[in-house]
Design brief:
Layout: E1 14-20, E2 24-27, E3 30-32, H1 39-50, E4 54-60, E5 71-75, H2 78-89, E6 94-97, E7 104-106, E8 127-129, H3 133-140, E9 147-154, H4 158-169, E10 173-178, E11 189-196, E12 201-208, H5 209-224
Parallel strand pairs: 1-4, 1-6, 4-5, 6-9, 9-10
Antiparallel strand pairs: 2-3, 7-8, 10-11, 11-12
Helix pairs in contact: 1-5
The structure holds cytidine-5'-triphosphate and calcium ion.
Region (Phosphopantothenate--cysteine ligase): 15-225
Catalytic activity: (R)-4'-phosphopantothenate + L-cysteine + CTP = N-[(R)-4-phosphopantothenoyl]-L-cysteine + CMP + diphosphate + H(+); N-[(R)-4-phosphopantothenoyl]-L-cysteine + H(+) = (R)-4'-phosphopantetheine + CO2
Domain DNA/pantothenate metabolism flavoprotein C-terminal: 10-222
Amino acid sequence: LARGDLPQDLAGRHVVVSAGGTREPLDPVRFLGNRSSGKQGYALARSAAARGARVTLVAANAALPDPAGVDVVQVGTAVQLREAVVKAAADADAVVMAAAVADFRPETYATGKIKKKDGEEPAPVALVRNPDVLAEIAGDRTRPGQVIVGFAAETDDVLANGRAKLARKGCDLLVVNEVGERKTFGSEENEAVVLGADGSETPVPHGPKEALADTVWDLVAQRLS
Ligand code: CTP
Ligand code: CA
């Protein structure tokens, strides 16, 4: 890992990164999930650690090795992720929400495996809303000067949707990715625009997820100083 040339501009800082995708169980063997690999969040955690930060990585179902020197908190569901992020955010200088958090969860959990019955149609799955972790921590602002970063994957009207989402969530920065059938999920590379609440727009050309991670921390470090 030849990254000794990185600035130590996050030394003395505590940063929280969420990564991966939450899984919302229906029964002991099934869940509602999403395609997030966790690679971007892990790259963010490694980059912050390399720049001197104390890093808490809240990891949801990412089949990736723990980054060296990072505190990893494993979670499964959106509710568990919320608890871990809110707790770690209490003394954090920055929080980056790279995790794909399920918007909904099944209203009920079947403690035994759901079985099909001959001649019977399946019961519909009722869903309820999950907490919006990003909006909550951006609204609370437990620490003055705390920098809050969100991620958004959009398929259409990427910039307009991104601007609206940044305002709705109340975060300082929003990393907007365009996604499609073959873009982003599970891939090693990424392409994005980072929108700032101050009206700034930072394009990040197609490249490794490490490069996007470094740009995010550049923008966070600017706002912390
Ligand atoms: N997020 C969150 N809690 C949720 C949903 C999303 O903290 N329940 C965070 C994600 O981690 C991400 C950001 O919010 O950083 C944007 O997620 P996205 O799914 O794009 O936003 P939504 O408000 O859920 O909008 P949409 O209806 O487009 O899914
Ligand atoms: Ca969503």
